[in-house]
Amino acid sequence: MTEETSVITSYHAHVYYHPETRVAAEQVRQGLGDRFEVQLGRWHDRLVGPHTRSMYQVAFANDQFDRIVPWLLLNRQGLAVLVHPNTGNAIADHTDRALWLGEKLEVNLEPLRQIG
């Protein structure tokens, strides 16, 4: 059984950092904001939702995927990045449908179970 990509309403990229890599995260964020049509989320120095490392979120439309993901591949400065679709199934979007650039981190599914 196949699913149609029309179920993807948008994408999120989560850029993860440690205190010692925050400057690199700031540079990646600036590059994304300067080059693409994105919504830059807040910095989360404490763990939020399913994320197991400090991060910020970058939201973008489907038509930006083929520009943003290649840029992140080349410019993530060694940071771990999770790219996932938004389909209404948060658990699958953060696991089975997730694309990892760099280190693959654990995802805490418990907060997603509570909302889904």
From TrEMBL:
This is DOPA 4,5-dioxygenase family protein. Pfam families: DOPA_dioxygen. InterPro entries: DOPA-like_sf (IPR023389), DOPA_dioxygen (IPR014980). The lineage of its organism: Bacteria, Bacillati, Cyanobacteriota, Cyanophyceae, Pseudanabaenales. Gene3D superfamilies: DOPA-like domains.
